[in-house]
Amino acid sequence: QIFTVNQDGVHTSVIFFDDFEDQDVSDWKQVKPAWNVVNGNLTGSSAGMAYITSPNFGGCSNCTFETDITLETANARASVLAWHVDKKNMIEMRLFADKNKFDLRYKSAGRIVQRKKLKQQLVLNQSYHLRLVYTNSKIEAYVDQVLILELNIQNVPFGNAGFRVKSAGGAASAHAGQIL
């Protein structure tokens, strides 16, 4: 399963959804390949980086991005890309299996404008429910319904969704469940 994007953060209007139950990822753009669907999960594997973006659903600003992420290997680094325009403009929530941390970044014009990190033990093959919300000039990052990181941002974000898997050395893999 993968993403649901909601217009107002309370699930009243779903503007994009993909649960991958059709086993098809052909409508997603594989920027750096090694993506497939396994048992209804979008799975990325790479010795370097695998990068995929959602079909263009028109983007959103005042919205919430939700998905489940599972790190499968000890060297995996998985990212949910929200308000994604391109690799230079997005909000990125990163999970580092090798460093046991979450990293929330706001990237604009190729620069990291703001970033917050949280050290926390991450367990391999455990699903983490991520929710990224834009509200009142803030990006709020929730993991398993708990607010863990916030960024104050100047500009209203706008864009689509995506995922990235990077390796900290050797082959790495992670998967995403349904995106809301």
Task: Briefly summarize what is shown.
This protein is mainly β. It is built from no helices and 17 strands.
Describe it.
A hairpin with a 7-residue loop joins strand 1 and strand 2 (14-17). 0% of the residues lie in helices and 61% in strands. Strands 1, 2, 4, 5, 7, 12, 13, 14, 16 and 17 form a ten-stranded mixed β-sheet that branches. The mean pLDDT is 90. It is an all-beta fold and 180 residues long. It contains no helices and 17 strands.
Write the layout of secondary structure elements.
Layout: E1 2-6, E2 14-17, E3 29-32, E4 35-38, E5 41-46, E6 49-53, E7 64-71, E8 76-86, E9 89-96, E10 101-108, E11 111-119, E12 127-135, E13 138-143, E14 146-152, E15 160-167, E16 172-176, E17 178-179
Parallel strand pairs: 1-17
Antiparallel strand pairs: 1-2, 1-7, 3-6, 4-5, 5-16, 6-15, 7-12, 7-16, 8-9, 8-15, 9-10, 10-11, 12-13, 13-14
Cα distance spanning the termini: 9 Å
Succession of helices and strands? EEEEEEEEEEEEEEEEE
Unreliable stretches covering 5 or more consecutive residues: none
Structural category is: mainly beta
So how many helices? Answer: 0
Identify the notable features of this structure and list them briefly.
globular; 10-stranded mixed beta sheet; mainly beta; 180 residues
